Amino acid sequence: MNFDNMEPDYNKDNETDLQKMARQTNKNVFLAVTAGVFISLGFAAVIFIVFLNLGFITLNKFNADGTRRDTDGTAKLSEIQSKMSDFYFSDKVDQQALMDGMYKGYVAAYGDPYTSYYTADEYSKLISSYEGKIGGIGVRVSYTKGEGLNVSGTEDGSPAAAAGIRQGDVITAIDGNDITNLDNNPVNGLRGEVGSEVSITYNRDGASNTVKLKRVELQSKSSAGTMLEGTTIGYVALNHFEEPTPEQFNNAVSDLESKGMTGLIIDLRNNTGGLVASAVKVLDRLLPAGVYGTQVFKNGSTVELSGTGDDSVNVPIVLLVNGDTASSAEIMTAAMKDLGKAKVVGTKTFGKGITQKIEQLSDGSGLTYTDAELRSPNGTTWHGTGITPDVVVEYDENAGTDTQLKAAMDLLK
């Protein structure tokens, strides 16, 4: 059977020298062409990738409606910068302020009041405040957007105390600048160089007041203790959790123990929190060895907040709390309540059951961001709900006495 397209049998042994040379030449040509094709394709791929990274080539450059696609915002930012640089009328532009404003806006867009960007100067002041040393006016505040800085207390002998500023006042302006509707906590405006002056406007009972105060170097006293008059009940007020707090607390408790303390009231009212590590060290003075709480992170990992309990206090304890008891103060409240070490008296706490990480960036600026949820020893959370006291007692300003403190004392008698 014959097929017109069948190749004839080919025997290399019968090749002539000319045929061998022709076959080798064809092979070399084929290899050269093939190599050239692959080299050309590789070179083209490299050029494509380089041009893509440089922005000369853009994949999916436009949306369906014809507008430019800008997934990371860089094209729009470049467009805005070009317009402002070319056409903005004034030349009085602080480039660093522009950059800081951009960073602050980006972080604020996360919508978390506890996540903030700090300039290098602001970051330095923030760290100084946690170390317990800061040039300021001696006022403890928390920020609520739409209201301002709510005053929860003042340091004894501070400029704020001398000016008559007290708990319940709301600071609405600093150096004439309204602070009631900012995306970032404006507390850094109160801090500054020792000896410098700051003007603050605050509201009290509907009336507005403005005072000018000179900043002083403050060594914060975040814990102070005393024996309640006519009793053997010790009283320790914890105003904030800073680096010096555990040592101050230990000293106060040890002094009360040496005086024959039979019961202890720890006042956490208006304590808006602070350093988690400091709160855990305070708990270590009060509780036996164990886990006092847990941090749960985004990836599901956990960190146990624990202590050795070598110096635990062996007298009945009552905690005083209110609506401004928050964050690290709630860690302490939840642990003492869950582990049966204390009774809690007052009103429901604030409900901040998350932690923030403070990090310094490469240029000296800083960032705080929410990194974990808190859980009590029993595994419960309190973020957004607060912690309900064992004994609910409202503070009555017209009672002529501290009704919550009296209720705490009654539990220890």
Helix content: 25-40%
Average the pLDDT over all residues and give the rounded result.
84
The whole-angstrom Rg is: 34 Å
Strand content: 25-35%
Quaternary assembly: single chain
What's the SSE pattern? HHHEHEEEHEEEEEEEHEHEEEHEEEEH
**Largest sheet: number of strands, sense, barrel closure:** 6 strands, antiparallel
Please provide a written account of the structure.
- The chain is an alpha+beta fold and 413 residues long.
- It is built from 9 helices and 19 strands.
- It has helices at 17-54, 74-87, 95-108, 120-130, 159-162, 245-258, 276-286, 328-338, 403-412, and strands spanning 116-118, 133-136, 139-144, 148-154, 170-174, 177-178, 197-204, 207-214, 216-219, 223-227, 233-238, 263-267, 290-297, 302-307, 317-321, 342-346, 354-360, 366-375, 391-392.
- Strands 3, 4, 5, 6, 7 and 8 form a 6-stranded antiparallel beta sheet that branches. Strands 10-11-12-15-16-19 form a 6-stranded mixed beta sheet, with helices on both faces. Strands 1, 13, 14, 17 and 18 form a 5-stranded antiparallel beta sheet that branches.
- Helix 6 (245-258) packs parallel to helix 7 (276-286).
- The longest helix has 38 residues, at 17-54.
- It is globular.
Q: How is this fold's topology laid out?
A:
Layout: H1 17-54, H2 74-87, H3 95-108, E1 116-118, H4 120-130, E2 133-136, E3 139-144, E4 148-154, H5 159-162, E5 170-174, E6 177-178, E7 197-204, E8 207-214, E9 216-219, E10 223-227, E11 233-238, H6 245-258, E12 263-267, H7 276-286, E13 290-297, E14 302-307, E15 317-321, H8 328-338, E16 342-346, E17 354-360, E18 366-375, E19 391-392, H9 403-412
Parallel strand pairs: 11-12, 12-15, 15-16, 16-19
Antiparallel strand pairs: 1-18, 2-9, 3-4, 4-5, 5-6, 5-7, 7-8, 10-11, 13-14, 13-18, 17-18
Helix pairs in contact: 6-7, 7-8
